[in-house]
Give the backbone structure.
Amino acid sequence: MSYAWDVFRVAYTNPPKTKLIVIVCEDLVCDEVQCIGFPINSRIRPYVSNRPDLLRCQVTLREADYGFLHYDSYLDCAHTRRFSTDELVVCVGQVTDEDKAQVRSVIAQATTIEPRYKDLILSD
């Protein structure tokens, strides 16, 4: 089963709180599938706004395109995060083709993503 481009609710922050994440690819590590994803945020933090290399990695997700969003949000594609399949409990939807294309474009130009993950994301 592929999780790529699915949106999940997960609790991974400290302290734990539910966040929406988008899985963009999968990686096999020691015979275990690890999902690579990016978080969805309700706003762009000032830290990110003040750093052009991070700001260009924010992809706007419009509320009108996603029934699970309550307002326009931002997919933070600046840094990958790993999730085990056990953490992916509730799938709430999928990324639109238009937004997939935008994410791929951002990733291709990102300076903050390791080349290995760029290749995995862009080959999907």
Observations:
- The mean pLDDT is 90.
